[in-house]
Structures are given as C-alpha cells and as structure tokens.
Design brief:
mainly alpha
C-alpha cells in the first residue's frame, strides 16, 4: 500500500506542480518594458506617417508596416517562449551555418542604398538578415562558451570564440554594414567578460585591436564610412554634406525643450528636414516631439529592461542561460549608447538602430526572438524575483 501511495505522488502530482512553478517564473516585467518600448516605436512611426501625403493607415505607410511587423514580432516572441531553449544548444552548429547562409544570400540578392546588399525582399517586406545574425551569434557563442567554462583562462579558448564571429563579421562588412559589425564585436566582448574569460588576455586582445585600427581605417572602411565617422568632430565644416545629418539632428533635439512640441508637431519631422528619421535618427524626432521628459522615460524603460534581462541571466542555473542573457544585454546596451550618442553628436554616425523604437521589421522580430529565448530559460529554470 505504501508503494502504491508513493507512485501517484511522484508520477501524477509532481510534474503538474513543477509546470505551474515554471510558468510563475515568467518575467512579466521584462515583457511589459519591451512592449512599452515597441509602442513608443509605433508612435514615432505614426508621427512620421502623418507627415506624409497619404493616409496614416495606407498599406504602404510607415505606421501600417510597423503594426504588421509588431504583430509578427508578438507571434515570434510567443513561439520562442514556448520552445524549449535546450534544443538551441543541440542545434547550435546548424544554426551557425544557417546564419552564414542567410548572410551569403544577402550578398547575392540583397539590395540597399548606394550599392549595398543588406535587405532581402520576403513576401513583399524588406528583411535584413544581419539583424537576425546578432541573435543567432548570441546562441552560438553561448553554447560555445558554456561548454568551455574551465578553458577560458587560456588564449586558445578566447580565440576560438573570436574565430566563430570572424566569418559572419566578414560577410556583414562585405554588404557593407559597419554598424552591425560593431554590434557583433560588442556581443563578443560582453559574453567573453560574463563567461569569466581571462581579463589579461582580453586586455591584450583589446590592445591588438586598437593597434590594428589604422589598418582597418585604410584598407577595410570605404570612403563614405570614413567621412561619416569623422564628420561628428566638426559637422559645421560641411553643413550641407557630411555634417548635414548631425546638424539637423541636434536642432531637433534642442528644439524639443522639456515637454516637446507634441506628437506629429515636430518641425524637423513634418518638414522632412532630417533624413532617415524613422530609422537611425528616430531618437532625434522623439526628443523633438516628446521633449527631454519623454527621452528620459524612454531611457528609464531601457534601463528597466536591461535590469530584468540581467536578473534572468544571474538567476539561471545553466551557464547557457547566463550567457544568452549577457549577450542580449550587451547588444541592447551597445546599440542604445551608440545610437543616442550619434544623435546628439558625441559618437560617430555608424548606422546603428535604436532597439524597439527604430522602424525596422527585422530588428523588432529579432529582438522578440531573443527575449522569447530568455523567457524560455526563465520558465524552465527559476522563479522571477519581484
């Protein structure tokens, strides 16, 4: 009788109870912060569409396309959350080669401005595979580093991670896409640091990278990329050329004041003075229309989101989970810092989007996939701390 009573307790009750505990570990705050940032991005898309000649709800308007991408991102997030993240470790190497294949496809059939090959048409929508490459590289690096925890004090283990990033980086630079290539380096650096890699070897590699910078400047970067990188030092030297973008951006940020001019009332936006205002320089329009207060709210949401990502990483009992979280945090933090820095003129213009807020379907869908993986790790390992 004792055996019969013990069996139901183990077989019938314990699994259902553990499932309930797992779903209580779902991080609601992380989802809320991400959704709020995406809503702000849609508000900026609405403002941009209102500045056009057609209706905001036209099928080709920035706002309508943003809504469609947001719905697709929500579906991707739910699927990634429900998917058992442990399978990602199993298929890490196939995902790596899929990543290389997608970047190769971009080079062959991709299109873009000035002869670049970044966007591929998917069902009538332009998709940038290099955005997805960031998430796939986080997964691949997390698997590699988690399996070599005890070997990262050696140079060989660290160089192995660098070699993994090398081929995708080369393919991205061939597009050419300087911004994404820098993000890949930021992901690598953040994940190596969080994995406990030797600080001595990391410092030496950083010095080597600095020493190689003049070679990259001369032989890797193109003329327009070099011009964009130095134009922020003195934009007034070429106010109608390389400095025009930054000068208009600073005017937009400065004219917003404390409370802003109101949504759809920004001069730089409505009169189309600021180029690429829905993508790389959307923060300038946000500051003009929502003001300093609105910009601070957005920054606060990013800080809260990053905190929840790191909280999930630190709670993970799996090194893979820790590293996925650190990779996502490194990516978002780097893009946030560089994007806002270039908008206000303290960083070179590199074409790095502002996560969630910049209009771009590939970026939003890829972020949703990354956050979904983090939630998958949360609900299968730990309870969220409120």
């Amino acid at each position: 009788m004792g055996v019969l009573r013990a069996e139901p307790a183990k077989v019938r009750r314990w699994p259902s109870e553990s499932v309930g505990l797992a779903w209580r570990a779902y991080d609601v705050q992380l989802t809320v912060y991400a959704v709020l940032l995406a809503v702000i991005g849609l508000a900026m898309a609405y403002s941009n569409s209102a500045a056009g000649s057609g209706s905001v709800l036209d099928s080709g308007s920035t706002f309508t396309r943003g809504l469609i991408w947001a719905l697709l991102a929500a579906v991707v997030f739910v699927v990634a959350t429900a998917f058992d993240y442990k399978w990602l470790k199993t298929f890490a190497w196939p995902l790596y080669f899929v990543n290389l294949g997608l970047l190769g496809v971009s080079l062959v059939i991709g299109s873009g401005v000035g002869g670049s090959a970044r966007w591929v048409s998917v069902l009538g929508f332009q998709f940038q595979f290099s955005e997805l490459a960031k998430i796939l590289m986080i997964v691949v690096l997390a698997n590699y580093l988690a399996r070599r925890e005890a070997k990262l004090d050696s140079l060989a283990g660290i160089l192995g991670a660098c070699l993994l990033v090398g081929p995708p980086w080369i393919l991205v630079m061939l597009q050419p896409d300087l911004g994404t290539s820098l993000v890949l380096f930021a992901i690598l650096a953040g994940m190596l640091f969080m994995s406990g890699a030797s600080l001595r070897w990391l410092g030496i590699l950083a010095l080597v990278a600095v020493a190689a910078a003049p070679i990259a400047w001369t032989h890797v970067l193109r003329d327009y990329q070099r011009q964009r990188l130095i134009s922020f030092l003195d934009p007034s030297a070429d106010p109608l050329g390389s400095g025009y973008q930054l000068l208009q951006s600073q005017i937009a940020v400065g004219s917003g004041g404390w409370m802003g001019k109101g949504l759809t009332n920004g001069t730089q936006n409505q009169l189309d003075f600021l180029p690429v205002q829905t993508t790389d320089f959307v923060f300038a329009i946000l500051a003009e229309e929502l003001g300093f207060v609105g910009a601070i709210v957005v920054l606060g949401l990013f800080v809260a989101l990053l905190w929840r990502i790191l909280q999930g990483a630190w709670r993970s009992r799996d090194p893979f989970g820790l590293l996925v979280g650190s990779g996502m945090a490194s990516m978002i933090l780097f893009q946030l810092f560089v994007n806002i820095g270039m908008v206000i003129g303290i960083m070179p213009i590199t074409g790095i989007p502002l996560p969630f807020v910049t209009h771009g379907g590939a970026s939003l869908v890829s972020l949703a996939a990354g956050l979904g993986i983090i939630q998958s790790i949360n609900i299968r390992q730990a309870r969220a701390e409120w």
